[in-house]
Amino acid sequence: MATIIDGKKISQDIKDELKVQVADYKAQGIEVTLAVILVGEDPASCVYVRNKKKACEYVGIRSLSFELPADTTEEQLLSLIDELNQRADVNGILVQLPLPKHLDENKVIQAIDPRKDVDGFHPQSVGALSIGLPGFVSCTPAGIIQLLKRSHIAMEGKHCVVVGRSNIVGKPMALLMLRENATVTVTHSKTVDLPAVTSKADILIVAVGKKQFITADYVKEGAVVIDVGMHRDADNHLCGDVDYEDVFPKCQAITPVPGGVGPMTIAMLMHNCVASVELQK
Ligand code: NAP
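^ thats the input. predicted complex w/ NAP below
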């Protein structure tokens, strides 16, 4: 019988721990502050931003909201980031992605001071992760490490297969698993015979962006399966990149969708905001 990894509970534990830390900082006169920039009115982005602000409120982090019109120029956005970089009372800066097409995401990410890069997307943060220096780690993969650690699932010496090599999930995930001494294989759309590779995994992490793509044939008996995907099924219910019903009987442990990886991303954003205070000292 597979263990269901409870991301809702683990993320709540993390937020409760952070709440105590934030209150400690407050007692020292430090108000942890996150600046959130939203350009345009993409409905999904609006929901993400609202949830991030709600989490800030819960943990006690002050959030500053910058909601800019969709036709904001690159110059205007970069100038706001520059202003927030300079402000001593702002610890973290988050630009909600995706940006409207006329704005260069790479340029915008690179404009954020790496000491305030709480999303962990800046090339300096990614470089630091790859050579084992301190820095911010992308929230979703960092959340997956917490899910595994707090569920007492050993990573050292295990064969971890990551499906997907995106900059925000797959690649940092592989680096983090390497840091945990797993043996790591990264797969992508050009991988030949994917099921043959994934069915060797002790820990299978799926960030492929395709609804219920991973079925039982892709999974080794007794594997741990982490599902990063987020989709709506035919009945408009949330589902993942993994066909949960099909895979469940084969697993040692599995994350559900919803209630698995999803809640961890925001919890780790809160973690990065709190960590930014020390990094900036
Ligand atoms: P992405 O940028 O679209 O990357 C998808 C990756 O999957 C790419 O590396 C692609 O390979 C690979 N791929 C596509 N088709 C494949 C196939 N047939 N076989 C093997 N690999 C294949 O996606 P992402 O941003 O990493 O996100 C992945 C999923 O996680 C999405 O469902 C997204 O909504 C979800 N997500 C959830 C959270 C959360 O908080 N829960 C956060 C981020 C993302 P190539 O590189 O060769 O194209």
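The first strand starts at residue 3 and ends at 4.
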